[in-house]
Amino acid sequence: MGARTPLEIVAREIVACRACPRLVRWRERVGRERVARHADEIYWARPVPGFGDPSARVLALGLAPAAHGGNRTGRIFTGDRSGDFLFASLHRTGFANQPASTSREDDLELQDLYVTAVVRCAPPDNRPTPEERDRCLPFLEREIRALTELRVLVALGGYAWNGALLALASLGHVAKPRPRFAHGAAAHIGPYDLLGSYHPSQQNTFTGKLTEAMLDAVFERARGLADTDRSS
């Protein structure tokens, strides 16, 4: 077997991780008990690695896998309403070859974009503890380091925004003063641009707090920043 890339190595380590007992118990319980609409499916029920273009200049960052989304399918933002909204936007803005992400076996391909999360296991009530987050952050740091063409991080929600700031600080890129999260917020941190967007959760999309046009605008801005020539 040939040598693995840094992204492949970190993905294998993510999938094998059992560092957080509470999250291990929860993700496996959800996988055993399932919900009626997915009763006949075999759940992934393991930590979920990032995926996408290894030459990506843009990274989209979420909070954690959904219990019956990524925890079921094994791919972040896949198989739930948040992912439906996100990937439709990525398709409209030219980052994805199709508007839906349904399983690891579908034909989805990402161009110039990598998708990942701060925490890799589905947490109870979608609320990881600070300690669980901190145990997971080195995986994000390694993904950022391995994405050698990366220019822009898009934080989907305040949790992802704070996670991105922590990961970048660990890599030696500290933002001073610390930028505050808002939809459309932007900060230049070391060699990266950080953009904020409301999370594409049903709570935000069903109420109109986040619209298709709003999310598209963030990813269009990300592409523009990635295209900016900073050599001068």
Notes on the protein architecture:
This protein is an alpha/beta fold and 232 residues long. It has a single domain (6-227), classed as Uracil-DNA Glycosylase, subunit E, CATH 3.40.470.10. The chain is built from eight helices and six strands. Strands 1-3-2-4-6-5 form a six-stranded mixed beta sheet, with helices on both faces. Strand 5 (186-189) and strand 6 form a beta hairpin. Helix 4 crosses helix 8 (212-227) and helix 5 (130-146) packs across helix 6. The mean pLDDT is 96.
Write the layout of secondary structure elements.
Blueprint: H1 6-16, H2 21-33, E1 51-52, E2 58-62, H3 70-73, H4 81-92, E3 113-117, H5 130-146, E4 152-156, H6 158-170, E5 186-189, E6 192-197, H7 202-205, H8 212-227
Parallel strand pairs: 2-3, 2-4, 4-6
Antiparallel strand pairs: 1-3, 5-6
Key traits:
232 residues, alpha/beta, Uracil-DNA Glycosylase, subunit E, six-stranded mixed β-sheet, 8 helices, 12% strand
**For this structure, what is the CATH class?**
Alpha Beta
Mean pLDDT: 96
What's the tally of helices? 8
- Over the alpha carbons, how many angstroms does the gyration radius reach? 17 Å
Question: H/E series, N to C?
Answer: HHEEHHEHEHEEHH
Q: How would you classify the helix and strand content by structural class?
A: alpha/beta
- Share of β-strand residues: 5-15%
**Helix content range:** 25-40%
Number of DSSP strands?
Answer: 6
